[in-house]
Amino acid sequence: MERLVVEGGRPLEGAVRISGAKNAALPLLAACLLTDETCVLRNVPDLQDVRTLRKILAHVGLATFQRGLNAFELTVEEPGRCVAPYGLVSQMRASIYLLGPLVAKRGYAEVALPGGCVIGHRPVDLHLRGLEALGADLALENGTIIARAPGGLRGAEMDLSGPCGSSVGATANVVMAACLAEGQTVIHGAAREPDVTELIRFLQAMGARIEGSGSSTLRITGVPALGGAEQSVMPDRIEAATYAMAAALTGGDVLLEEVDLAHMGAVVEVLARAGVELSEDAPGAVRVRRGERLRAVKVSTTPYPGFPTDVQAQLLALLTQAKGTSVVRETIYPDRFMHVAELARMGAEIRKVGPTAVIQGPRPLSGAEVKATDLRAGAALVMAGLAAEGTTVVHDIHHIDRGYERIEDKLRGLGAAIYRETPSQTLRRAA
Hints:
- The chain contains 15 helices and 26 strands.
- By secondary structure, it is of the alpha+beta class.
- The strands form 7 sheets. It has a 4-stranded mixed sheet with strand order 24-25-1-26.
- The radius of gyration is 22 Å and the shape is globular.
- The relative contact order is 0.15.
């Protein structure tokens, strides 16, 4: 398998363009199943998850044609295909997004239980609860969710809040289905993430009637049909946070281009407390520099607009170089700490106490062979490698490729010594 080789000790300097948001692009692609007309999506990131979802969509009759760099035209060519196969669905959790659009538009769906990153218990109960409230008849057979609504869906009132807060995926799935349901649907406990508001904006452009975007209560009045629409995917706030932290960790000076700082309030606040300077040089351009030294902080991950769980691993890598004792509590996925052991292999002093990581710093990092256990953990290990003395080899980088577009190219553009090594190159180097 491919791996990333990182030579540490070089401050990141220069400018990097932030790609379209993975977590926004995936539901937008699935939403194109809701119409018989053509849709166009631009600024779609070139990621493994996007490529996998395009293959799954092809299995249910939605053809995607590339129309320039990061742009796609999507048209339903075979509306009778309603089965998403296990072989592809098992590779990514976002494949569950097909369930709502298929049962709403075609009255039937078969979607295998999804896979994805192993970061703790992530049930699909809220997705199913919401679709059942809309009148879908659901069954689980041999690891496959089968949804039926031959007479169409009906509007309903429901609460989608869960034990760890609102679910982005469940909110998106139910909103898409409700757009074609008869009558009005009211969703309490809806997720407020920008990914959801981006989806709502697209659905409204298709003709959906949705009120309350950006709030925890959404009202959707069903319409008989949706039309085509065009949209550019918003910038990826998680990728922007990752590069900002990488710049600070290496003591660099980096300009993030095409960033929406309004979506990063909690991250900006935590970085400021940690001694990282962020300034908006121009609309959509944010300069990141580290102050005289990094400072310890105490943080808890919470649903948006709080500090995102998808930045927790990267923050831990940064805090290994902060003076004092930092405390990071994970409230969304309490088991999302598999990267702690890998960071410790590089010299980090991190102690896990239940759903909390206690980081003592600063501690010098040294290069080591480490394994990416999930998408964001992989990014954190690359970050640590950039700041470490010597060579770091990150294995299982297929996780990283799921959510970061050309990460080694972007980092090299900032002066990092990093390259991707194929199995054959590894053998030749060993010889």
